[in-house]
Design brief:
Length: 242
């Protein structure tokens, strides 16, 4: 049996990833997944994990594992659990490891695994990864004339199902995320004071300049022109594109 905290990722091991505070982004070869406080996820060996990025103040841990029954663990989706309970249980496991009592250590590990097993999320791992693909698709295509139906067709899902799963994962609908990406990029371009409002509207996915202006004011409380004027004199309005 093997269950040990690691500082670095080794593609030869399976891992349990725990997020105790804040959020982190795990970058795989083809996509990334954001994990939030209280989430636990299994990363299989040879998963082509490239990097783990954490926001300021975030806390997470990687535990390499190998034991009888690991196949069940590898099929876990995201687990949500109380961060403090996760951390205290892992501290107890580390304390027992230090006592050099193998049988007690194994019992504690399996009790811990069973505890978080009961809190499995109903969504599949495949679904979670699919939501990340959809988010990245939006990140790359928000400047195009995206519609919910178009995205649903692209990913072979019904619009309602796509929206439900996307909102469950990110706290907003897919089209709300499209709008957020467009407005953020519009702010960035407006702060440059190089492009006309009409040109910016087209660059962020709106064919109608006047609809863009109404949408921008609804989201920010200012017209694009007002925002550009403020950004010219106040650095706090100069945002970076996501």
């Amino acid at each position: 049996m093997y269950f040990e905290k690691k500082e670095k990722w080794n593609p030869a091991d399976h891992y349990l990833l725990f997020v105790f505070k804040g959020s982190i982004v795990v970058q795989f070869a083809t996509h990334s997944i954001q994990f939030k406080e209280g989430e636990c996820y299994t990363v299989e060996k040879d998963s082509q994990l490239v990097d783990i990025r954490q926001e300021s103040g975030a806390e997470y841990a990687l535990y390499a594992f190998q034991f009888v029954g690991e196949e069940d663990v590898l099929n876990w989706p995201i687990i949500r659990y109380t961060p403090d309970k996760l951390k205290s249980a892992l501290v107890r496991i580390e304390d027992i490891r230090a006592l050099n009592q193998p049988l007690l250590f194994q019992k504690e590990v399996f009790d811990f695994i069973y505890l978080i097993h009961k809190h499995k999320d109903r969504r599949s791992r495949q679904c979670i990864h699919q939501m990340e693909y959809i988010r990245e698709y939006i990140d790359q295509s928000f400047a195009e004339a995206l519609t919910l139906q178009q995205m649903a067709d692209h990913f072979y899902m019904s619009p309602n199902h796509l929206n439900e799963l996307f909102k469950e994962r990110y706290g907003m609908t897919a089209m709300a995320y499209v709008t957020e990406r467009r407005i953020t990029m519009a702010k960035f371009l407006l702060a440059r004071n190089v492009y006309r409002v009409r040109d910016i509207a087209h660059k962020v996915g709106y064919d109608d300049e006047f609809y863009f202006s109404r949408k921008f004011k609804h989201e920010t409380g200012m017209t694009p022109t007002q925002f550009a004027r403020k950004a010219k004199h106040d650095p706090q309005y100069d945002v970076l594109p996501m």
